[in-house]
Amino acid sequence: MLNKLQWWQDGVVYQIYPRSFMDGNGDGIGDLAGIRQRLDYLAWLGVDAIWISPIYPSPMADFGYDVSDYVDIHPLFGTLADFDALLGEAHARGMRVILDFVPNHTSDQHAWFTESRASRDNARHDWYIWRDPAPDGGPPNNWLSAFGGSGWEYDAVRGQYYYHAFLKEQPDLNWRNPAVQDAMLDAMRFWLDRGVDGFRIDVIWHLIKDEDFRENPDNPEYHAQMGEHRRLLSTYNTDRPEVHDVIARMRELLDEYDDRMMVGEIYLPVERLVTYYGTGGRGVHLPFNFQLIGMAWDPALIRTAIDQYEAALPPHGWPNWVLGNHDNHRIASRIGPEQTRLAALLLLTLRGTPTLYYGDELGMCDVPISPDQVQDPLEKNMPGLGLGRDPARSPMQWDDGIGAGFSHATPWLPLGADYPRVNAEALARDPYSLLHLYRKLIHLRDEWSALAVGSYRGFSAGPRLLGYLREREGQRLLVLLNFDAAQQVVDLGGMLSGKILLSTTLKRDGEPVASTLLLDGYEGVIVCADCT
Ligand code: GLC
């Protein structure tokens, strides 16, 4: 562990999907002016940092994850002046700003790609991953795109294929080329100089591909419902050893500045994930831990996952936890609304940095999208498999007025039908709402440092229960979560006598606790041991 605590260790990160957060200019799409209008809400909630999904110029083939200029703002979202204003206003409220950086690929409309594809001998001819066709004229190897179909696209001008891990409109950069590294580091420097506090680095485990372009092996677990993009294992097009050298260069750059951080998007098994902490401070500060997104909502499995993760962390590796993001189904839809309070308690009391996805604090659900409303290219390419990400990207539900307070115009994605009831304004009025639970938990983390940064120790509370102790400097807090719909009595075995600091019902604060504790169905509590 690091000696001095950094802001990204005890803080809470809040992800904003900018198209869907708040529309400031009345075009049905969220923007920077909108985010500025809602900073007071975020300050009230108590989050320490916002991560904003991409806001750069982009043809929007993948809604901003196809960048055509790394050092500007898309006019849809505003201007650089709007960005500076947002940054200043966030900082004035003590809130950090993390930008989404997308280094693996550009848009096919980026000037670098236009140049690169123009001939085989231009100055940027090797900035992307170009390969000759196979002897039969087909793609150079069997690598697949994560968005369906081959990962290779033929370009008639060069008479070669280029590789794209995602859409063909998102050609992968050649990160083995030092000139590409320099250009991308310059782009990061541009934002660091402007004052951003860090980066969420998109698909960081993809950056380097196998030098020999070896064929990927079959995925033994593959079945058609998974989507054809998972037919092969990504053995040779992701997670290559040399990726750690380019991450080290990014880290070196960040370390030239004070207090900056990077969190890497990485979907890998835990033992591979933790290698991204790097050795000797050369890795990302936080490799995103997506275990709670991918696994079944079951206390025994969650316990095992926590234990394995804690055991796998390198000595300097700071943990982190995520319940949802713009690429996955919403937590309320995955586990059902009756368990969203348990999820909030879990996210905000596990050891490590929590990342909260906008709207999850309201219990927003996946919004059904009819075929004619589909925006997401993933759903368009592989329809009907439930892969589409639009349902989790619906507009933030601010109030019960026109357009849920998000926009007066028709929003780019449909609103959740529950917005007249499930909205920030209504929930802020109800002291027992999920929103108040999130707020209280976030504030408790400030008050009780054991919750944010204390040690973690499992506590066997019984079947269908999850329990753990968080301890620090004389603070001893026991967290208990009942994953069952029925009431359960927890035997505390005389290990403590204290009081309830918080129950997910928000109605038992201060209740004394002795040898046993009765938990309601799906109730969770934080017990302060030794408190009188
Ligand atoms: C990341 C983003 C996702 C995007 C993909 C390609 O996984 O989170 O939204 O589609 O990268 O850039």
UniProtKB/TrEMBL annotation:
<keyword id="KW-0378">Hydrolase</keyword>
<feature type="domain" description="Glycosyl hydrolase family 13 catalytic">
    <location>
        <begin position="15"/>
        <end position="393"/>
    </location>
</feature>
<dbReference type="InterPro" id="IPR006047">
    <property type="entry name" value="GH13_cat_dom"/>
</dbReference>
<dbReference type="GO" id="GO:0004556">
    <property type="term" value="F:alpha-amylase activity"/>
</dbReference>
<dbReference type="InterPro" id="IPR045857">
    <property type="entry name" value="O16G_dom_2"/>
</dbReference>
<keyword id="KW-0326">Glycosidase</keyword>
<dbReference type="Pfam" id="PF00128">
    <property type="entry name" value="Alpha-amylase"/>
</dbReference>
<protein>
    <submittedName>
        <fullName>DUF3459 domain-containing protein</fullName>
    </submittedName>
</protein>
<comment type="similarity">
    <text>Belongs to the glycosyl hydrolase 13 family.</text>
</comment>
<dbReference type="GO" id="GO:0009313">
    <property type="term" value="P:oligosaccharide catabolic process"/>
</dbReference>
<dbReference type="InterPro" id="IPR017853">
    <property type="entry name" value="GH"/>
</dbReference>
<dbReference type="InterPro" id="IPR013780">
    <property type="entry name" value="Glyco_hydro_b"/>
</dbReference>
